[in-house]
Every structure is written in structure tokens, then in C-alpha cells.
Design goal:
The protein is of the alpha+beta class and about 280 residues long. It contains 13 helices and four strands. The protein has a four-stranded mixed sheet, sandwiched between helices. β1, α12 and β2 form a beta-alpha-beta unit. α2 runs antiparallel to α6, α3 crosses α6 and α10 crosses α11. About 35% of the residues are buried.
Length: about 280
Amino acid sequence: MEGSSRRSLAAARARLDELTAAPPPGSTTRSRYPIDFGRLADDLDAVVDLLDREPPVRRALADPGVPGPARSGLAARLFGQQISDAALDVLQTAVTGRWARPLDLQHALSELGVEALLARAQREGALDDVEDELFRFGRILNRTPELSLALSDPAVPVPAKQALVGRLLDGKGRPVTVRLIQRAVAERYHGDLERRLEQLTVIAAARRNRLVAVVRTAVPLTGDQIFRLRTAISRYFGRDVQLQVDVDPAVLGGVVVRVGDEVVDGSVARRLTDARRRLLR
């Protein structure tokens, strides 16, 4: 997203956070609306689906030539009787923003649906578990091409894919994790499913202002090793870092660390490759 779209998404996310934040201990303040996190996410998804089917509506709600209050009023007329008050509040905040492209508005609402589910996990103290489960499911897809194909095949009906996810994670994943993965398999505009799951992990980590560092190592790390590695990476980036450790025998030894697009390859496999190249010169 370009700058204006990022700022608009940040404003809508801030509004969502206001609505979903737990009151401080001892406070008598209540949210303006009773929050049903699942309903909020579903309602935002329903808006996204309509915008995907109806490009003229998407363009009208993101038209920078129309004043924000007019776009907010249009959103109320279109969705006011169809979605919850909380979802309408978030939607109206979003449409009054300035979007570089109408499609950015659609994608932003999809991300806000994710944030609503993650807010529920955070309220339940389960955000760490959800992050880890999303990461692990992505690794399973990476190592099981048949499953990846089954969940990505456009010829397979979405309900069948979602039912498969439900069976696979029955009793093994948090309800929020299952819902997020089921949403991911239903989305057509985010592309590769494994990459989308990685994006969801990053969004979850960002709720605590943390970066996600994917660490590949040949053998499991001890608790002390994980602590020292996390400390070193956090110091380097100047931010707290969440480690996702992936055991991969192909590494041979050492570690490979990836944070976003930045990769630090300290593996034995890489050093052997470098030595081989030098010998062949």
C-alpha cells in the first residue's frame, strides 16, 4: 500500500483497537458496543466479499473526490441493516480515509477482519499460541504438497477446504487459529496460501509491536539458546522479536535467520557451498 492507504488503514485499526480493547482492571468503562469478535470478523468479511463482487461499490466507497462524510453515509445506507454496529463503526472509519486505490480499501477491511479475531485471542491470552499454530500449519503445508494442493485448488469448493481444515485441527488448534486458516483458504486475492499464513503470523506479532524471525536450524534449540538468539536479534533490530524455530536437517549445522526480506545465513550448508565455489575458481 502507498502512504495514504497505510495511514487510512492505521486509523481504521486504531478505531478497531478502541472498540475491542479490554477495560483496565477496576474500570467501570464499557465499550460503546457489546463486542462479539467472531461476528465482527464475519461482518467485515461479508463487506469484503461484496466489494470483491461489486467493483462500482468499491470505487464509490473509496472515491477521493467524494467527501468523507458522504462516503460514510453511503456505507451506512448499504450495510447499516446488514452488519453489527461495531462492524459499521469500523467500516465508516475506513471509508472516510484516503485510499490510493479502491482495492486497498478492500484489502484493508480483510486485514481488519483478521485483527478482530486476533483481538479475541489477545483478550483470551492465547495470542502466542495462535501465532505458533499458524506458523506450524504453514510448515506442514510446505512439507506436504498434497495437502497444499488440496487447500489451494480452485476447483475444490471452499466449504470442502474449510471442512478439511476443521478436521485436521480438531482438538489441535485454538478456535481462532482454525477460523483464520479457514478464512485464508477462502480468500482468492492474497495468492499463495503458505505466504498468506506467514502474513497472518506477522500481523499477530505486530499486535505486540514484535517482529517475526523465522529460524531454520538442523537440530532443536535449547531454551537458553533460544533466549540468547532472540536477545541478539532484538538488539540488532531495536525491537522485540518473536522467534519461530523450524528444524530443517538440510541446514546441517548453524542457523539461518530470516526477518522479513532480510536473511542471515550462518548455516554449515552455506559455508560448504561457499568453499566449493572458491575451489572451483
